[in-house]
Each structure stands twice: as C-alpha cells, then as structure tokens.
Design goal:
By secondary structure, the chain is an alpha+beta fold. It has three domains: 106 residues, no CATH class; 74 residues, Helix Hairpins (Orthogonal Bundle); 154 residues, 2-Layer Sandwich (Heat Shock Protein 90). It is built from eleven helices and seven strands. It is an enzyme of class 2 (transferase).
C-alpha cells in the first residue's frame, strides 16, 4: 500500500471511529436522560420501592452513568477492532487463495478493497508465471530429449568410421574420406554439446546495462563480416540498408548479442538462394531495425511463441539447424531491458523481426 493510501486509510479509520463514538455517546446520553427523567418523575410521585432499578439509579446516578459510558466505549472499541481485523483476515485469506465475498466494510474503507484487488492481481500474475515456468520446463525437457537423441547419431557415425580406420578395412582414399566425415560429425557433436550447455546454464542474469553511445550502422557492418562464410555456404544474398547517422545509447555487448542471435536465426531458417534484408529507419525518439528473410510458412500461433524460452517452431526443428530455443528469448529480454520492443510477423513468404530502441536511456536512469 502506498504512503498516500495508508494516510487516507488512517484518516478514514479515525473519522469512522469518531463518528461511531459520537453516535454511541449521544445514544447513551439520550438513554441516561430518559432514565433520569422517569426516576425523578416516579420518585416525586412516591412510586419507587427499594427493589426498583430507578431508585437504585437515582441514588447512584454518577456511578451508573460512568459505567454505561465505559461499557459503551468498550463495546465500540471491540466492534471497531473486530471490523479492522475481519478486513485484514479477508485480505489474508485472499492471499492464501481462498474465495471470499467482499464484506460491506470494504465499501466503507475502499483502501481494503483496493488491497484485496492488488492481492488478486498479484496471485493472477503468480499463477500465470507458474504456468509459464511449467511450460518452459516442458519445452526444456523436450529439447533435452531431442538433443540427447541427436547426440547419439553423430557419435555412432564417428565410432563406426574410426573403427573402420583402426581395423585397416579402408584404403588411403577411403581413410581420408572417413576422417573428413568423422571430423564433420565431431563438429556437429560440438554444436549439440554447446546447446546442452546453453540450456543447463541459462538463467535470467540479463539485468544490468553498461551504457555508451553506439553507432548501429558501424556495429552491424562489422558484425556481418563474420557471417559471410555461412551466408555463402547457403547461397544466401545479404541486403543491408541503414541510415548513415544511426546512433543509440545502449549496452554494446548486449545489443551485439541481440543482433548476433537474429542474424543466426535468419541464416538457419532462410530458404537457400534467398535474400536476408536488414534495413533501418529513424524516428523522432527511437530507431527501427528490421530483419527480413524468406522462410517456410509459420502459423500465427508459432510466431506468437517465437520469443518463448526453449521454443522452436516444429517445422524448424531439425538435426542440422536451430539452437536450444533461447536466442530470441534472450534477445527480447535485452531489448526490453533497453525499454524497447521486439516482435515478429509473417509477411507473405517472409518473416520479419522488428526492433524499436529509444535513442537514449537517460530518462530511465
């Protein structure tokens, strides 16, 4: 509860207690007046006997009045505390997940109702987070199962070729070919082990930014140089169109990781003999960066889950491409840490990833 809401609740509680006190004391005073009137009336007429309460009251008026006032105040305090602790108990039971009807007192003290609503909202978020964690764990276990199976395939091939070489059942040309194939299988095995490591060591430690001014144009051109061997291997063309003056304030290493993940994703899932287009536009307070590549058609549901941890679209899960399904999830975390946005969309035969980054992070520091 915010300080302003706490102060308002305190004022409401004090005002409510004061109003109740005035009403109760007024009622007690009115009652005492009636009793005193009839005690005097019947006494003057000689109608009171020693066993009558009115005679006892007339002889002990001060003590009776003090007793009634104290008794009324005690009942009032008990009532007030009962209402307060009942409200707190309702909020506690709500926090424990029990269904409770909203008591009438919550409408007198709306701060309690707001607290209950916030508790319900927090519980909803917690439940959603738990469901997401369960789904992520299922994805993770499924991927581990796939990777465990995939690990056996190149390992079996390597053992087979190496056994042939050791048994001297191949000539020199076949031996060289076997060594080459075993080497390729070893490389694939290394990639799969890296994927295992990526899954097992993954956590949410993308939490801090080391800010500096970044020339996105220069960063991307320098980065893309390292991808040309992979691009040429798959007969893919690269089309880059970025503004000359294309700067943001951000974390260089983390943004480089984002662009690296997006580029690897584009290469892995692009159709051969297609084009990967990277283009950017400048807005008043942000930049837009688009990665577009021709790929197999992906349904809307799969596109919506592309940024989920440990998720890979079923059509893209193969033994030769795709990682542990963390690249895009990490990219999203980093972009959101920069107070930006990233989303994907299918546009005809192309999948387009769009990033929006604010020009500066100063307003968020």
């Amino acid at each position: 509860m915010k300080n302003s809401e706490y102060r308002l609740l305190r004022r409401r509680l004090v005002l409510f207690f004061m109003i109740l006190t005035v009403l109760v004391l007024g009622l007690i005073g009115f009652t005492i007046g009636i009793i005193n009137y009839y005690a005097e009336l019947y006494s003057s007429q000689g109608l009171l006997s020693n066993t009558d309460f009115l005679l006892f009251y007339r002889n002990h008026a001060l003590e009776c009045n003090v007793f009634m006032f104290v008794f009324a105040l005690m009942l009032l305090l008990i009532l007030f505390l009962s209402i307060f602790f009942h409200n707190m108990n309702v909020i506690l039971q709500t926090f424990q997940g029990e269904e409770r009807r909203t008591p009438i007192s919550f409408y007198i003290f709306p701060q309690f109702r707001k607290a209950q609503e916030k508790v319900n909202e927090m519980l909803s978020k917690r439940n959603a987070s738990q469901m997401l964690a369960i789904e992520e764990n299922e994805h993770k276990n499924e991927l581990l199962m796939y990777l465990a199976h995939d690990l056996k395939t190149p390992l079996t091939s390597m053992i087979g070729y190496i056994n042939h070489i050791l048994d001297h059942k191949v000539d020199e040309e076949q031996q060289q070919n076997a060594i080459r194939i075993a080497y390729e299988k070893a490389l694939r095995l290394d990639e799969l082990i890296d994927e295992f490591s990526e899954i097992l060591r993954y956590d949410d430690k993308v939490s801090q930014l080391n800010l500096s001014k970044i020339d996105i144009n220069a960063m991307l051109h320098q980065q893309l140089t390292g991808f040309y061997p992979l691009i040429e291997k798959r007969n893919i063309q690269l089309d880059v169109d970025l503004p000359t003056d294309f700067y943001v304030i951000g974390d260089f290493d983390k943004l480089l990781r984002v662009f690296d993940n997006l580029m690897r994703n584009a290469i892995n899932y692009s159709n051969e003999h297609s084009t990967i287009a990277i283009y950017g536009t400048q807005k008043k307070s942000s930049i837009l960066l688009h990665y577009s590549n021709e790929a197999e058609q992906i349904d809307a549901d799969s596109v919506a889950h592309l940024f989920d941890k440990f998720y890979r679209a079923s059509t893209a899960r193969t033994t030769t491409s795709g990682g542990a399904g963390l690249g895009l999830a990490i990219a999203k975390e980093i972009i959101e840490l920069h107070h930006g946005h990233i989303h994907a969309a299918m546009e005809k035969q192309h999948i387009v990833f769009t990033i929006e980054l604010p020009l500066t992070q100063e307003v968020f520091l």
